[in-house]
Design a protein that fits this description.
alpha/beta; Methane Monooxygenase Hydroxylase, Chain G, domain 1; Cytidine Deaminase, domain 2; 9-stranded mixed beta sheet; two-stranded parallel ribbon; 39% helix
């Protein structure tokens, strides 16, 4: 008899050190991609690891730091460009960060091991509990694909409350901006003369506890605001019900016209069925006359009107479940690649493209392309674009090539920014991804699958698009393409796809702040110019 098939123990159960290390060693390597693209990737891995470390998401931080070490120690030295003078100098510079990465790994490892050991010791009990709930789990809305993928996702294996970013977009943006401001303040403080640069591990437990308490308060406040809106709707309904005191009959609202409460977040469900909206117990016909009393004179107001409305039921928030205190929030993946792998949410300021078109207006007038780099921060397993970086570049009518990428990487390192994609104009072409664009995008997406490419074609409709390479077949095909012509055909059709919601992973938000920083020679970056938009 075959053994029974067990369901996953947890969608976010702790992963072992070996499981995380094995995942860290699996990534796409192609020596034909310029070394500068992999150096950009190494910077992103290091910055991502730091972001997850600050989030207290130690499994994902460990994976990113291990992948960073693997890339720097095992792969980049073998790249053809590493043998050049410029390549050797670039490797020496990036290797300066290795000691701090190793130190972080040494601190993270026992935390992960302890969580895994605790989980393993209770495995049999949890298996039994999940067997009993197997039937109920099948009825849940989460798909088997999500459970199977989440079971192996280090970012979801940390102890946290999992939320859907689509249902909590405003919460995600508010928490991210609070955390970004906190990190910016800390970074500026340690740059002051005489300030000791204490490491993350000096007081990490208290700092994470404080942040979790703050996130918990923001979450509670937002949920309370939603409930007050619902209460206000219910109260206004009661006030709108007519009171016909001059008539002996009582009008009772029919069941079909009863108020239906709007739903709120699935992650904190509220049971309304026990509270029927203001049903009257008064019968629909005139009640029988009390004994030994005359018929009441309905034209005169009585001290106690029998048609008086009953006391409304208690407010909804009194029956709402409480949120556990000091529980870190983690947002689930927003979408899936064609191979089934999950990708994180990317939040993009809705005004960013308009600001970029303003910066690029002179090039657009002259028929020249222009590009910008989308930089941001990872917070709670979601990515937030907060800086439009204008690099040094060489522009033509059909292409735009970044130059002096070292200055771009240095700025991102100093400002704790991740490179999340790029934006460019098509001043004389429609909104699409050219063959040259596909090759550029592959360099961004090879190590960060969430990376996006934004195309602005101001003279055509549609004038704007957010794209990513499909995977498969797009990413593998483009990485394997050896053609060097600016424009060349590809035999595969579906090389790229739209990345915007609802099918994609990119949310546009008018509440997400961002700023512009220009690295081009002679550009001015005074505080007034770089204000948040």
């Amino acid at each position: 008899m075959a053994p029974p098939t067990l369901i996953p123990l947890d969608a976010n159960r702790p992963l072992s050190i070996k499981e995380i290390s094995d995942q860290a060693s699996v990534f796409q390597w192609n020596p034909h991609i310029p070394m500068r693209a992999y150096l950009r990737t190494a910077n992103t891995l290091s910055q991502e690891g730091k972001s997850y470390l600050l989030d207290g998401n130690f499994p994902q931080a460990y994976l990113l730091y291990m992948r960073y070490l693997t890339l720097l120690l095992d792969f980049l030295p073998k790249h053809p460009d590493a043998k050049t003078h410029e390549g050797e100098r670039a490797l020496r510079e990036v290797n300066k960060s290795l000691p701090s990465v190793v130190t972080n790994l040494e601190h993270i490892k026992p935390i992960i091991q302890n969580d895994y050991d605790e989980w393993k010791s209770s495995r049999l009990r949890r298996e039994e509990e999940l067997r009993q709930k197997e039937q109920a789990n099948r009825a849940k809305s989460k798909s088997p694909t999500y459970d199977e993928r989440a079971f192996r996702d280090p970012a979801l294996s940390a102890k946290s409350r999992l939320l859907d970013a689509n249902e909590h977009q405003e919460l995600a943006v508010e928490l991210a901006q609070r955390e970004i401001r906190r990190r910016d303040a800390n970074r500026k403080a340690i740059r002051q003369p005489g300030v000791r640069t204490a490491g993350f591990w000096d007081n990490w437990k208290n700092e994470l506890a404080d942040r979790q308490a703050e996130e918990d308060e923001v979450y509670r406040r937002q949920m309370e605001s939603t409930r007050r809106e619902l209460d206000g709707n219910a109260d206004s309904l009661v006030n709108d019900i007519p009171r016909k005191e001059s008539h002996p009959s009582v009008t009772v609202p029919s069941r079909s016209s009863s108020y239906r409460y709007p739903s709120i977040s699935k992650s904190v469900p509220i049971q309304y069925e026990a509270q029927q909206p203001y049903q009257f117990k008064t019968p629909t016909v005139q009640p029988p006359r009390p004994p030994k009393e005359g018929i009441p004179h309905w034209h005169e107001p009585s001290p106690k009107t029998p048609q008086e409305l009953p006391t409304p039921p208690p407010k909804i928030h009194e029956a709402a479940p409480e949120l556990p205190k000091k529980q870190r929030l983690t947002f689930r993946p927003a979408a899936y690649l064609e191979n089934g792998e999950p990708i994180r949410s990317v939040f993009l300021p809705s005004q960013l493209r308009h600001r970029f078109l303003s910066v690029a207006s002179e090039n657009t007038r002259r028929g020249l392309e222009m590009c910008g780099i989308l930089c941001g921060t990872a917070v709670n397993n979601a990515l937030f674009v907060r800086c439009l970086l204008i690099p040094e570049q060489k522009c033509s009518s059909d292409t735009c090539e970044t130059e002096n990428e070292g200055s771009m990487l240095e700025y991102c390192m100093n400002e704790d920014l991740l490179i999340l994609g790029w934006i460019h104009t098509h001043p004389t072409q429609t909104c699409f991804m050219s063959s040259r664009d596909l090759h550029t995008q592959s360099g961004y997406q090879v190590m960060m699958p969430e990376s996006i490419a934004i195309v602005c074609a101001p003279k055509f409709k549609p004038d704007y698009g957010i794209f990513r390479l499909t995977n498969p077949p797009g990413l593998d095909h483009v990485l394997g393409c050896t053609q060097t012509a600016t424009f060349h055909p590809h035999p595969v059709d579906n090389l790229y796809t739209g990345a915007q919601r609802p099918r994609g992973h990119v949310y546009e938000s008018d509440k997400l702040e961002f700023y512009v920083h220009d690295l081009r020679p002679g550009a001015r970056n005074d505080p007034a110019q770089n204000k948040n938009f």
